[in-house]
Amino acid sequence: MKVLIPSPLLSYTRVREVQAEGATLGGLLADLDRQYPGIRFRMVDEQDSIRPHMRIFVNGDQVMDLRHPLGAGDAVQIIQALSGG
Amino acid sequence: MPNVVILVATRKGAWFFHGDAARQAWRADGPHFLGQIIHHLVADPRQPGVLLAATSTGHLGPALMRSGDFGRTWQEAKRPPAFDKVPEGDQAAGKGRVVNHTFWLTPGHASQPGTWWAGTSPHGLFRSADGGDTWEPCRGLNDDPQYREWMGGPQDGTPDGPKLHSVIVDPRDPDHLYIGMSSGGVHESVDGGRSWQPLIDGLAVVEDFDPTKVWFHDPHCVRLCPGNPDRLYQQNHCGIYRLDRPGTRWERIGDHMPRDVGDIGFPMVVHPTDPDTAWVFPMDGSMVWPRVALEGRPAAFVTRDGGRSWQRQDQGFPASQAWWTVKRQAMTCDGRDPAGLYLGTTSGELWASSDEGGRWTCIARHLPEIYAVETALA
To answer: Which end of chain B is more exposed for a tag (fewer CB within 10 A), N or C?
Structure first.
């Protein structure tokens, strides 16, 4: 499925839009990490929580749970909620 | 002979300053990692060209970067320092700890090439045996129930989190280690980090709290003398200290500082060969603890007799209206004779002395907030 990558993570993917697969959000992030090693840890901490300031939307709805199921036609958008200076 | 390079870690990237043979002219190389927070940038003295950088951003999770060609190219560590995951359903444990950033990097013992140690925020000690590519928690410290209590919680650390720092490896024995925790005291291991003991006798704590309680102790920077590995110096939240092993009681050598200067500060620098020589950079610790240069007049202080006396060193520094703060990792020396001294300010100035503090020269202005200054040879 299509995954949109935020600019702070382009150092991993080089492109804004990539393809990844997974039956759940956790599975999708694991596939992203397989393709782009290290990218998952920048978004998800060692306790499997999505890090503060990271936001993940599936078909426009925000998702916080890595167990959230995904289908082949879903569109995933990863956003960084930038703040501070 | 290779020249000295100053490694500058800032809140917005890293810079190298390449010196000439006389350490008088410096060429800026940077920024590297522009926009990223560089907590510590350290060269491996065992392997020329190898650098490790502890990085994060304001928003992404932390990363640890490695270079084998002195910063021309970088590779991200496969498994950076991270705490163990709490098992699913382990309600008693609550949410497990999360490494916010790696704060301190120390190359391992000369006999263990590829070994590195890392201290994190919040408190955690980690070890790599493969040049910093993968890291394992030092569970004998991180998970020890007594140490978990002494480490306290997020409210017990510096404004940007509790920090495990000053990871020191005894050059005579790879299993003999020291660490400092802000807050949480100074500790020693003689078995490679499997078990630890506090080393806090003689250290003061704030107000009238009980100094036997480990969690009240706040070492800012601890250094071991290369010229005598049985001697440690420490800049603490509450004074400057020296400890001569096998003794276990710190002596407050800051009592010999001028009374109107006091002995509050962050960095502690030891001479590369002379164990009687050390430097501090005093900060204003009055009232609300401004932690800037006293009266806006920056000065280093040097002792040449193990702390029995101190001399002011401010030649070249601004004589007034310079309200500098120098963080605990932001002052260091090189290994030359005479030793070169280097310091960076939170206002982005880099200063150097090629004569052990006798005269200071500004190398760079207008850098981002400087977090750490180290030296290397290249």
So the answer is: N
Task: For the beta carbon of residue A54, count every other beta carbon within 10 angstroms.
Answer: 22
CA distance B144 to chain A (A): 19
Q: Let me know if residue A85 belongs to a domain.
A: no
Count how many Cα atoms sit within 13 Å of the Cα of residue B118 in the half-sphere of its side chain.
37
Residue span of the structural domain in which A60 resides: 2-80
Please tell me the predicted confidence (pLDDT) of residue B87: 85
With pLDDT > 90 as the criterion, what percentage of chain B qualifies? 91
- β-pair partners for B246: none
Q: Do B59 and A41 touch (CB under 8 A)?
A: no
Q: Determine the 3-state secondary structure of B31 from DSSP.
A: strand
CA distance B250 to B232: 9
Q: Do A51 and B58 touch (CB under 8 A)?
A: no
Residue B155's pLDDT band (cuts 50, 70, 90): low
Domains and their CATH numbers in chain B: 12-83+97-325 (2.130.10.10)
Q: Is A46 touching B (CB cutoff 8 A)?
A: yes
pLDDT at residue B156, as a whole number: 67
Name residues 229-288 of chain B within 8 A of A (Cβ).
none
pLDDT(B243) > 60 = yes
Whether A45 and B98 lie within 8 Å, measured CB to CB: yes
B73 touches chain A (CB under 8 A): no
